[in-house]
Amino acid sequence: MCVLQVIGVVVADTHENAKLAATKVVIEYEELPAILSTQEAVDAKSFHPNSEKCLKKGDVDLCFQSGQCDKIIDGEVHLGGQEHFYLEPQSSLVWTMDSDSEVHMISSTQDLNICTYG
Asked: Where are the bilayer-spanning segments (predicted)?
């Protein structure tokens, strides 16, 4: 999977026998295409097995049908950094106050930057 990943262990009764046994190990590598973005991973169906998670609270479909969702923002966000995209699910709750002149947001991010719009 990656450079310097442990792929095997040699166990022997002496150091010399371990070195001799290690010389007899033959490893064959299969060159695979590089997957460099989340979208490429989705397209290639390249996922860790048994890792699908579904987090939900409330009934989104019922909310949409009720007419209480008068503002729906739909789109995509692409981030260049990939070192954290797999660590935590991200979600946000955004609402306006003061005749829509103030926006409040709760987000499950690790970022400590605070933005105020108004």
From this structure: none
